[in-house]
Each structure stands twice: as structure tokens, then as C-alpha cells.
Write a structure and sequence with these properties.
It comes from Paenibacillus typhae. The longest helix is centred in the last third of the chain and has 22 residues, at 173-194. The protein has 195 residues and is α+β, with helices and mostly antiparallel strands. Helices cover 39% and strands 41% of the residues. It has 5 helices and 9 strands.
């Protein structure tokens, strides 16, 4: 089995409530990891997770109406620190790219709200897609319940009716020809939408 050399978090973000932030801070300290909170110049906080050997990860935290948004871009080598950051990222439904670096290749995980959406393998010879998220049942139900297509069809029917009225009142063959072109385009779109 390949041994992981490092893990990179690229433009990762996660959100938590004030209660969740307090819970996280209470459980952040272990026998391997300690934390400290710094206040930056703009009023934002920086949480520093530090491993006993000295490696540290900085999370920039911004509080907006009781929701804490944490930003994270770092490279982690230590396994204990890596485990702590991974648990934090998954528990609080992080979004961003996580690169798991091995000797000779990198596995790239794309997360959205704590769920893996895509996994790719990067090697010197290129990139290979390993996994792509398919629509979940709830996403399919939301698409099924959407009435956007029906509204578009209704609008196209209104436009076609107006064009037919204009065609009935047309004075020349050229006017009829232009209107017929527009009606043909509408018919093509409606056929596609109704399918």
C-alpha cells in the first residue's frame, strides 16, 4: 500500500455555528495536538492547530452573524495533525480541494459541503478521472419538481400566438416569410422542451 507523504488543502472553507465552534475548540486539544486563538488586525480570528513536533495549521476564521467561516490553505505532513484537520473538514462539511500526495502520484479530491464530488489521479503522464458524483435522489426529485420547463413552454406558446396574429395581419410575402422563420425556430425549441 502506498504511503501518503503529505496532504494539501487548497482554498478549503467550512462553516460552523458558535456552538459548533466552541465544541471544536473544546475537543481540539489532544495529547498530540494543541490549539491557540489569535486575533488578526481586521477583527478576524486565526486558530492555530499545532502538533507536538512543531508543525502547525492556521485556520482564518470570520464571524458573520453567528456563522463562523473558516478558510484553510495548507500542506500537512504529520499524521496526527492531518487526522485532526481531516476530521474538522469532514465534520463541518468543508468545501474545497484536497490533494493527497504519494510518491509518484497525487490523488485529488473535490469536496462540496462535506461530500466528495470528484476524485482524480495525477501522475507525470497526466490526469485520470477515478470517481464522479452522480445525482442523488433528492437532487433528482428537485429537478422533477421544477416547473421551469413548463413556464418556458408557456412563454413560447404565447410568443407563437402573437406571431400567428401578426402573420394573419401581414401585408407582404416578406413579412410572412420572416414570421414563418421565427415560428419554425419556436417549434424546434418546443419540440425539444416537450420531449
Amino acid at each position: 500500500m502506498a504511503q501518503r507523504l503529505a496532504t494539501e488543502y487548497v482554498n478549503a472553507t467550512l462553516q460552523m455555528t458558535e456552538f459548533q465552534m466552541n465544541q471544536f475548540l473544546l475537543t481540539a486539544d489532544t495529547c498530540y495536538i494543541s490549539h491557540r486563538v489569535k486575533v488578526a488586525g481586521g477583527g478576524e480570528q486565526v486558530i492555530v492547530l499545532e502538533e507536538a513536533g512543531g508543525e502547525e495549521v492556521r485556520l482564518t476564521v470570520e464571524n458573520k452573524r453567528g456563522i463562523y467561516t473558516c478558510s484553510l490553505s495548507c500542506r500537512v505532513v504529520n499524521s496526527h495533525l492531518n487526522n485532526a484537520v481531516r476530521k474538522l473538514f469532514v465534520t463541518y462539511k468543508g468545501t474545497g480541494t484536497v490533494n493527497r500526495i504519494y510518491k509518484g502520484f497525487t490523488m485529488v479530491y473535490y469536496y462540496e459541503r462535506g461530500s466528495v464530488r470528484r476524485i482524480s489521479e495525477l501522475t507525470d503522464s497526466g490526469s485520470k478521472l477515478i470517481y464522479q458524483h452522480k445525482h442523488s435522489l433528492s437532487e433528482i426529485i428537485n429537478v422533477y419538481k421544477s416547473d421551469a420547463v413548463e413556464r418556458e413552454i408557456t412563454e413560447l406558446r404565447r410568443k407563437a400566438d402573437r406571431l400567428l396574429d401578426l402573420r394573419n395581419d401581414a401585408q407582404s410575402v416578406e413579412e410572412c416569410s420572416e414570421i414563418d422563420k421565427e415560428l419554425a425556430a419556436i417549434a424546434k425549441v418546443m419540440f425539444f422542451l416537450e420531449a
